[in-house]
Specification:
Elements lengths: L1 H6 L2 E5 H9 L4 E5 L4 E4 L2 E7 L5 E4 L2 E4 L4 E6 L5 E4 L9 H8 L3 E5 L8 H11 L3 E5 L11 H7 L4 E2 L6
Parallel strand pairs: 1-2, 8-9, 9-10, 10-11
Antiparallel strand pairs: 3-4, 4-7, 5-6, 7-8
């Protein structure tokens, strides 16, 4: 919340999360729900389904954060990116492909708390992107999935590896 209080960004999110963030000091919230689309700073944002838990650690308590979601973002130049969140693979990723056709997808590959490279490779078959950016891996020991494993399992897409921070 320190960055939010300092920079005052527009927070786009599921209604419950935005309400919680406003309670914690966020000044600019833009809540929405699955299937909704809004434009923020020239970026068209559509909220889509995801398949994972959605709790917020608030002090020593976990509270309900609304349903799990992902986002399809379309930039002014027409580039479309799908950020899947912590999701597992699910068949409706084919609907995301059919409706939005993202060229770039950001998929978790860590395993244990998200899908592994195996499931992410299957998600690539459903989504048919040109590029995949693996995420949610390598930040602590139980997250064992690695980008090179995803590339071996999904040779039809270009895996762009970023260094976890």
């Amino acid at each position: 919340m320190t960055i939010t209080k300092h920079c005052q960004p527009v927070i786009v999110g599921i209604y419950e999360l935005c309400a919680w963030m406003q309670k914690k000091g966020a000044q600019q919230i833009s809540p929405m729900n699955k299937g909704g689309t809004q434009t923020v700073a020239g970026v068209k944002v559509t909220m889509v389904h995801a398949d994972h838990s959605c709790g917020i650690l608030d002090g020593d308590e976990i509270i309900y954060g609304g349903e799990a979601v992902g986002y399809v973002m379309e930039f002014e130049d027409g580039v479309k990116i799908y950020h899947a969140g912590d999701t597992n693979v699910f068949g409706d990723m084919a609907l995301i492909r059919d409706l939005y056709a993202p060229e770039i997808v950001m998929l978790p590959i860590g395993d244990l708390f998200t899908m592994s490279p195996r499931e992410a490779a299957y998600a690539c078959k459903l989504l048919k992107p040109k590029f995949v950016i693996p995420m949610h891996f390598g930040t602590f020991p139980p997250l064992t999935g690695r980008p090179d494993e995803l590339q071996k399992l999904a040779p039809e897409v270009k895996v762009i590896e970023m260094t976890p921070a």
